[in-house]
Amino acid sequence: MIEVHELTKRYGDREAVKRISFSAARGQVLGFLGPNGAGKTTTMRMLTGFLPPSSGTARIAGFDIFSQSAEVRRRIGYLPENPPLYLDMTVRSYLTFVARLKGIERGRVRSACEDVIERTGLGNVAGRLLAHLSKGYKQRAGLAQALIHDPEVLVLDEPTIGLDPRQIIEIRQLIKTLAGNRTVILSTHILPEVAQVCDKVVIINEGRIVCEDTIANLTRTATLEEVFLRYITADSAAAEDVAHGPGSAAEL
Amino acid sequence: MRNILTIAGRELRAIFASPIAYVVMTGFLLLGGWFFFNLLARFNLLVSMYSSFQGGAEAMERLNVNEFVIGPLFHNLSVVLLIIVPMITMRSFAEEKRAGTYELLLTSPIATWEIVVGKFLGVVSFIALMIGLTSVYGIILSLYGNPELGIMLAGYLGLLLLGITFVAIGLFASSLTENQIIAAVTGLVMLLLLFVIAWPADSAGPTIGAVLRYVSVTEHFADMIRGVIDTSTLVYFATMIVGWLFLTQRSVESIRWR
Question: What was the ipTM of the complex prediction?
């Protein structure tokens, strides 16, 4: 469903994402893990067509993200790190707007809205202004926006960030129930979240993929924390060696 | 077309959802009323002065309401538009970028030119409504006097085309930044330049002078207020509007090649 091949993003001289490749099958929930600034958001922005890659390709549902961007965008639901909400609109009018934007046929706009409102549990705030909602409900509205056109692929950028524990649990539950036969990419740096929600893990550090495996395989001998730290520190140390050589490392 | 209307509808709602729309509209109509009242009062004074003169009847012939009230009114309103249009267009793109909704727009299956044209139509309908409301002045004049309707309508068309051109330029300024203040100031400076670009025309030599005069919006606008609608003026406005919208589209699209 998602095949990423040697995807690279450069900002000027700096390579934010370096030749990454990974894949996810239909129905899989893929946890995209990494420290802050590792390149998670940049990768997601490339997959959703917001930013073009500097080189490399990715195919989503068989369509190339660069040359067939419109087809890809039709099939993808994207929740950016800050939910893209128009705070001056009510939940219902906002979702109606998004439904039209996503190209849902005129006759089905209303039912698509009501459907997604129910699935994301927004029923009792549907008539309220987005500006007046709590952070948890805003996040739900963001999810509803990503889901409204029933996309084959869902891309969620840190969907639980800044929520209180109860809200985090609710959103995770929601993501699990929404997955169904969709492919979900979910970025996070909260490890237990991955263990609870995902089938497969990709760990990215300093723009490179350092690990791609299923949860079951990774946690066979160690906890996810240990695995994560091992990969991240091993990778950083290796990078350090390459950059400075053993001599300069000793001076530190 | 549907995508364009969706964006246009959202833009128009956003304008009315913020207090800016009401402040701007009230200010525009208040100033318009003030100009209208004073121009009319002056016209009245002239009429009563001339009629008390010996041989004033001849001079009275030359007093005409189109030239003494409507023309100056349109000129004054054009200056007000120059200042307030950037304040309406400033949020169009800048605010979307700041709020993160830009990502929603650009990752939706909709072309960037549809976003640009949609936003343009949304703001233009607001400006058209605002200009339309000033038609009370025309109606009052027609009830109590007999202005030449054709000239007045040409002037209105001129004011509308001027406002639409300003919107296209303001949108371009907004597409450059995520800071609304910068968008407003950039837009204002660009519009002012467009107003005064013909100032050196007399000293710049015949060719450059003619080019500057053609580029400047003021002469075309003045023509229309005098009731002259010629093809070169219409071509001028059409080129300006389409050209600036094209540049806006390139500017929005540029995120994809940076």
Answer: 0.85
